[in-house]
Every structure is written in C-alpha cells, then in structure tokens.
Design brief:
By secondary structure, the chain is mainly α. It has helices at residues 7-14, 18-26, 45-59, 64-74, 82-113, 124-130, and strands at 34-35, 41-42.
Length: 139
C-alpha cells in the first residue's frame, strides 16, 4: 500500500522538524518531493525511511558530509561496506578524542570548583581562570 503524507506528518513520524526537512532538501540529502496542484509537498515510505536514516546518523553525531556519503553508499547494497566502515571509524576516532578532552576538562573543573575560599581574592576558580599556569594539565 502506497502512503502519501504531508511534511507535517513526515516531521511527526521521523521526529525531524519541518524547517530541518526543508534544509535537508536544500542540501540535497532529501529528494524534492512531488507536489499537489496546491503546491503542497507529498512524501512516501522511501522518504520516511531516508529521513529516519538521516536523523539516526545525526543523532549519532555524523556530519552532514558523512551522512551524504553514507546515503550514497546505501544506494549500492551490492558494494563492500569498507567505505562505510571507514566513515564510522573516522567518526569514532573523533568522538574518542572529544571524550578524552572532556575528561581532562572535567578533572580540571572538579579540582578548582571544589574551592572552599571565603572571598573572591582567594578563590581557586577565579585564580585558575586568570592564570592558565595554575591548571594541572592541558585541556
């Protein structure tokens, strides 16, 4: 059974806001839909699946360029998945580096946020922010 839905219904079904759907259309991630005589966009099952794919990839932090590349790969199911693996591995390396940096930031913030000074003149938060040399590591 063929389904035909409006952009509002597409947004509700996929959890992607209407302006974002239009943006993805402008960026070429979503194919411009058929339109009614009244110029309303109409979407089908393939559009729901594609937008759900995009949403999931974006939720996982993939860039729009990576999503575009993954969508192109998905159009060729007979191909090796090595390219998709490489995209995911690069993204994982980026996320791992961000986590390491955030862990260093957390440790430094915990250290000086535990300040027990009575006045700003003795405050470890203010002193540490004013003089990077007081930090215990690079962050």
């Amino acid at each position: 059974m063929k389904i035909v839905i409006s952009i509002g219904d597409l947004a509700r079904r996929t959890g992607v806001k209407v302006p974002t759907i239009r943006y993805y259309e402008q960026m070429g991630l979503v194919t411009p839909p058929d339109r009614t005589d009244g110029n309303q966009r109409r979407y089908g099952r393939a559009d729901i699946e594609r937008l759900s794919f995009i949403r999931h990839a974006r939720d996982l932090g993939f860039s729009l360029d990576a999503v575009r590349d993954l969508l192109r790969l998905a159009e060729h199911p007979e191909r090796s998945c090595a390219d998709a693996d490489e995209i995911a591995a690069r993204h994982l390396a980026t996320i791992t580096a961000k986590i390491a940096k955030l862990t260093r930031l957390e440790a430094e913030l915990r250290r000086f946020a535990a300040c027990k000074a009575d006045t700003i003149s003795d405050c470890a938060v203010i002193e540490s922010l004013a003089d990077h040399a007081l930090c215990h590591g690079e962050h």
